[in-house]
Amino acid sequence: MVSGSASCTRPPHPTLSVLAFNPLNLGHVCPPFPRVSHLLHTPLLAYPSVIPPNTRFSSDIMISVKFILASLLLVGVGAQTPNYLSPVLIEPGNNAGKCLTAASNSNGAQVSIQACTGADAQQWTFDGGSVKLFGNSKCLDIIDGVNADGTKLQIWDCSNNGNPNQQFYYTGDFRDYFCSLAWTDHGKCVDLTDGNLSDGNLPQVWSCGSGNPNQVWNTGYHVSNLPDKSQNDQSGTNSCGTGSSQDSQCQTAWINDVDDFCLWAPPYVDTIGNTERVEVAWCTKSGRGSRTIPEGTLQGVHFVKTPDYVQVTGVGDFTKINIPNGDEGGELDPHGADGKGNPIGGLVYGNTFGSNLQYHEWTSFISYNEFCFRACTGPNAAINCNHIYDVMGCWWNMPANYDAGVFESCDADNDLPMGIYGTSTWYQGVEPTPAAHPAASSSNCQSVSTVSVTPARKCRGLERRVLAAAPN
């Protein structure tokens, strides 16, 4: 969502606001045209809720729903592609460490799930309504064009005449809509067979289903093969090198521990609201090509690892990283109002849930004296890293320890999802505003005396580009 300063207000949609505490649940629907509904700013189609049987909705709500659906149908499908620039990895939503992989560069080669390595057999290009591989010579293909649940995938020479077996579209980048890779005009989606993440599992096509986690597919990049830019209109770079510079335009961040994380902040002195699209990474580790957080900036840092996310919160003097004194800041996330993210092209990686894993869902707030940053993984990542409460700040979105003078790393339970209260979902701007959830319990806390800049630890083999052969 669009972030901004604390003075920013966004009134709720005059009709849809009545859904607060009694939300209309259309399930995890990925509309064919997510940009239209996203502009309503009210996530009508986004989050799960439980509606009592025989619940009746007023006519104005139903008119609004019909208006939304009609608006979506007027736009036209077209060949939709990810916002990330190709070539990209295609990863099941439940695990960013696994990738859609061709067995070889031969007609009929099976497409399976394998550990992500960045190999050529995993570098997919969305082009002309097809999903291409190996220098655009091969295309993702439905075996024999069989329009039946359970049909597997292969690669085949790309057709020049729009072979319908090779036509796919990506339904959007707004993960709050749980988007899919769909077979064009067939009502089928690429599906992780049985939800099995084991290497060698063969994905299939299956009838597209609302909220089916096996049909969620992210796109992204292997850390060994980061692009110069991952988005159109990006101001900085993702291929940041191994040095460090206070003039760096690096937009690749990391979050690993109390002494190993990055913050998004301006490249020059200005408010977060004015610079949200161009923020750069300021990090506690040197050697990743980013700027480093100056000594004396961090005055308290609290890191937690939960079953589904990592989170770092704290206080400090962030005028040292170009945030003006008194700026209450704003929210940053990988979506923004147009799916490109704030900052545009900002990528986040970590080693907590797998080596060099890309976090496709994250949310961060920062002001002149406080910050919070959460990066989520797994099937509930979009809910745990909800980004729609963009004027509510750190304490409401990420209840945690913000004490000064303490630097600690803990294990913790998941917090309750922001904005969800039992069977109801609260939407920003609707009165009354509910209290924040209490912080989840934590344990195994380890303290350090302070956090200062130190060199990043190098992973063996990380510095060389992966050129491994495709799996047999």
Structural write-up:
The protein has 472 residues and is mainly β. The protein has two domains: 89-220, Trefoil (Acidic Fibroblast Growth Factor, subunit A), CATH 2.80.10; 227-455, no CATH class. It has helices at 34-38, 59-75, 272-275, 381-384, 393-397; strands at 89-92, 98-102, 111-115, 125-127, 130-133, 138-142, 153-157, 168-170, 181-183, 188-191, 204-207, 217-220, 252-257, 260-265, 280-283, 285-286, 291-292, 298-305, 309-316, 330-332, 347-350, 357-358, 361-366, 370-376, 407-412, 420-421, 424-425, 442-447, 454-455. The strands form eight sheets. The chain has a seven-stranded mixed sheet with strand order 20-23-24-19-18-25-28. The chain has a six-stranded mixed sheet with strand order 17-15-14-13-21-22, with no helix packed on it. A four-stranded antiparallel sheet has the order 4-5-6-7, with no helix packed on it. The model is unreliable at 1-78, 173-177 and 459-472 (pLDDT under 50).
